[in-house]
Each structure stands twice: as C-alpha cells, then as structure tokens.
Amino acid sequence: MAVDSLWHHQFRIVMLGDSTVGKSSLLKRYAEGVFLDSMDQTVGVDFYVHFVEIEPNLRIKLQFWDTAGQERFRSVTRSYYRNSAGGVLVFDLTNRASFENIKNWHQDVIDTVKPQPVVFLLIGHKSDLEAERKVGQKEAEKLANSLSAKYIETSAKSNRNVKEAFQTLTLGIYESLKSGKMWPDEHWDGIKSKRPLITQPEVPAQGKTNKCWC
C-alpha cells in the first residue's frame, strides 16, 4: 500500500511571514530533518508533506504551503489562504520589523474569503541567536494572545522546539475538528478525512466558555 494512502486526516497549513525569517528552514528541518546554512528565497510557493501519528493508529498527513515573503508574490500566495486549516506566523527574533509585520500577515488571512476559521500558531524563530534578540518573550506572548494563537520559540539550526511547534498546531487543528469548529467539506481543501468523527457539538452561546489556542 502506498505511503500516501496511509492517513486518516489531511491538514493543509500555510507558512506566513516576512522574507528571510526562516520559514523554509523550519519546514526543511521538520519535514526532512536537514538544516542548511544558506537557502534560496522562496519564489511564489513551495510545497512540503509530512506524516505524523498524534494518537495510536491516528495518522495525519500535513501539507505545507511555504509562501514567499516578498510583497510582489502576495497576489499568488493569497490564493492558498482560503484552503488552509492552519497558519504558522513566523518572525525572526533578531528582526524587530518582522515581528511588527505579523499583525499584517494575520489580518491578510482573516480578510481573505474563507468558509472556515484558521488555527494560528506564532513562532519566534532563530532562538539560537539569543545575543541578537530584539523581541522579548513576554511581548511575543502578548501578541499571540491577541491573535488567539499559541506562541513558541524555535531554531531550525539547533532543532529547538521545531517538532513541538508543528505538533502544537496539528493538535490544535485536530481539536477544532473534533469539536465541530472545523469540518471536512468537498468544496474546501483545508481538511480531508477518511475516518468518520464523532464531533462534540458547540455549546450554546449563553453557556459557552471561551477557549483559544493562546
């Protein structure tokens, strides 16, 4: 049986952030276990696939769209937003401007017509360059909270928290799927499922408690 057929759910995830923050390095480290000191800037969109088992006998296929950070490619990359279940917002801990632009990347996705919500994760990358840090952890956590996202600091070079970051996002999407906040739809490619789910219905508004991935 082909490896590609051995999955129960498929999640599409889009990588977002300024050019040179290390989106491609993160994905290459996670999906291929490789770190390259020098990588060409992404032109348009690159594609990665990774399989992960988040529970015994529950295999998830992750499809990653690695988008270019340059403004001239924005019209191309926007077309991938609406078919994504997850969004990874990446900034460079040594580059203040890349952090300040995160809200713009987040809003760009929110403003794109989408049939379903997106589960976001905020990543502060290049944590191995601690001496050059320009963004504090508490400040980044505050931003993540305002975006209803979890926050984690990573380094593709040292492999710090790379697996943990993508596992956090994968579990977030899966919980949204189980709770009924997200669902497979033949007209939407963000989530595909081969295994039926017994979803937990949403609690009525008057009795609902707020829950966010922050």
UniProtKB/TrEMBL annotation:
Keywords, sorted A to Z: GTP-binding, Nucleotide-binding
Xref: InterPro entries: P-loop_NTPase, Rab_GTPases_membrane_traffic, Small_GTP-bd, Small_GTPase
A single MF term (Gene Ontology): GTPase activity
Database matches in Gene3D superfamilies: P-loop containing nucleotide triphosphate hydrolases
Keyword Secreted: no
Taxonomy, superkingdom: Eukaryota
Pfam families: Ras
UniProt similarity note: Belongs to the small GTPase superfamily. Rab family.
Name this protein carries in UniProt: Ras-related protein Rab-39B
